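Quick one: co-fold with MP6.
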Amino acid sequence: EEKGAAVGVRQETDVNGRPVLKHVKKGVKDFHFGRTLGEGSYSTVIAATDRQTGKEYAIKVLDKRHIIKEKKVKYVNIEKDTLNRLTDHPGVVRLYYTFQDEQSLYFVLDLASSGELLGVLKQMTTFDEECTRFYGAEILDTIDYMHARGVIHRDLKPENVLLDDQMHVKITDFGTAKILDQPKKPPRDHEDGGPETGSPMDGADVNRAKSFVGTAEYVSPELLTDKQACKASDLWAFGCIIYQLLAGRPPFKAGNEYLTFQKIVNLEYQFPKGFPAVAKDLVERLLVLDPARRLSVEHIKNHQFFDSVTWGRGLWRQKVPQLKSYV
Ligand SMILES: C[C@@H](Nc1nc2c(c3cc(-c4cn[nH]c4)ccc13)C(=O)N=C/C2=C\CC1CC1)C(C)(C)C
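Sure, here it is.
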């Protein structure tokens, strides 16, 4: 039995007729599976209802044979370890428990029933400043939480930012996340996006992750030049997302991946006419080639663009702004 796996308790009687509580693990038959929500490279996410409680979940189904054949076992374990590490923040999809049968692994998770931020953005074309500020703040608050627990997402993009039934952010897809080696000291509360300071190799960003490239439009330059991601790589992606919410398209997009990568490493992008000045200043301080010179989470929180935002748990209790386009 995995830790915390037992998710149900059933009353039975033992041989002497004494009542005993039996810990039972849920299985496929405890759920009614509904529509397919999304397809990953080696998984499918399906909406499902717990037959006993009626509660709705998203269940990520992974085909064991395919995972082994494609040598993805490592990624499945990284995703599970990451989800088990990021359990108490409203901005991260929560993993309730896992089970398996002959051919599949099942992760039972929060259902983000309003779907992908990308889908909503496409319907709106663009977000106005107030909506961009609100969604930017919830995404940043979640990045701050992930980084404080030594997790780099490495593939942040509007497809991985989901929305729950109240239209609050739920970040997902941690199969390509990087868990930084446990920092020597407990993570400080003002963990910044820059290199881990205070460790023996001061200044050298000792905690870098190796060899993984995310989705072309959001990949950071350091990932393309020296193959290493750091916390600031997530803040590069954050800058691309803020730009995209207001402009309706990502800053770096070309005919193919190679040309997109070229634009990124040459910092080749322009702001559309009428792009708000304060947001432009923020994006310009995030889309910086040198990760050490990119704004850290703390500096972003104090940027004028987020002046009216109350950070912390209050942010998640606020009513979400009515979605309006930036015309
Ligand atoms: C990014 C992911 N897509 C999705 N992953 C998850 C969804 C999800 C929901 C909708 C949706 C809901 N309503 N309409 C669409 C569309 C896509 C989704 C969800 O509700 N709960 C957990 C999820 C993922 C958990 C994962 C960390 C393990 C890919 C494309 C990889 C399948």
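If it helps, The chain has a mean pLDDT of 89.
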